[in-house]
């Protein structure tokens, strides 16, 4: 038998070493991609109807080996290797109404409220904040930042906001340790800029005032930032297709597109504010696809737009929430972002402070919106009084927290805790993770935080206590959830 050439033996050795190294690399990658060893701990927090459970730690469990579930079992399936949009935060609006009610509380209750919303340890850790550009319906009066007919904006002043709004925003920022994205929305241009000469009851912005109105956004941003309140972005117009009895203004899709393309976008850029995010639509899910198609199909307008904001009031017509429209916009325009910019329970009734369906509306919306690609979620007023106001047009609504100004007490509704199941545990820069359920009685979504922790939120919409399997990759845990409850599982 002939001896093999030295180069052949060397090649065999090199191939063998290469195979061994590749196998080692595969093993290491498998170890990295399997972050849940058997025995890893998970902690369960629960809020449930007809109980005292409010963001209460209810269980500590451990993952075991996950085997094929049966069709008779209820399961939640999480695949951490499949990630989607980056999360920017959850929060609420500080309106004139919220700030005015806050100012009437004693110092202890003020601190309690701020901690409850903005402290991650003591509260639910809000990181988003929306505020109106001058007045909205949730103000005690209609006002602007300029004198009427001041087309040059020489009288621009945010002096009105110094009494209530600015102090509350600053204290919220301090409590949140400045980890806050703040954005602003106008409800109406000044009356003289509109065809109706009225800030209320709709009307449209007249073409000759497109540029002065664009300049107004600049003045607002500069004035707030001079107060050390950084503005992350602006929405173009609150509810641009609604003729409301309060401050409102109508923009067709084409009008909003052209205002952004020819005025707002270039003006922000020219003034050194090109990094500010422009959010379009800021209205219900029903017409959002049409608005996206019109604005995003124009590259000159779309280049200025960060993404689309939306509300949840499309059920005014008697229909169901149009969650799928959110996903369709994301599918069609994956490079543009989505943010829920307003939602509240309407028609205030103090007998319904603890009305559980109001909270479940939040849970259902948040899970569906996130699963359809939403990056951030903003509630409406963070605080209102015992009448659901103040509101200068009588549009009284619920907030997650109310202050009874007769007794000085704070009233925490179940909605506060439902929101907290997301905001307390899912932190900015988290990635949404693939999550599905095997039965319609449950809703679920999951996120991977930057620190490596995984968070799964599960909501039980049924009247029954359920036991479900939580499958995470190849691991499983069995968890009980009460009827009409929401849980956060952190692991």
TrEMBL record:
The chain positions of domain Glycosyl hydrolase family 30 TIM-barrel read: 89-426
Superkingdom of origin organism: Bacteria
Query: What PROSITE patterns would the database entry show?
Result: PROKAR_LIPOPROTEIN (PS51257)
Give every Glycosyl hydrolase family 30 beta sandwich domain span.
430-489
Q: What GO cellular component entries does it have?
A: membrane
Give the Pfam families listed for this entry: Glyco_hydro_30 (PF02055), Glyco_hydro_30C (PF17189)
The record's comment on protein family reads: Belongs to the glycosyl hydrolase 30 family.
User: What is this protein's name?
Assistant: Glycosyl hydrolase
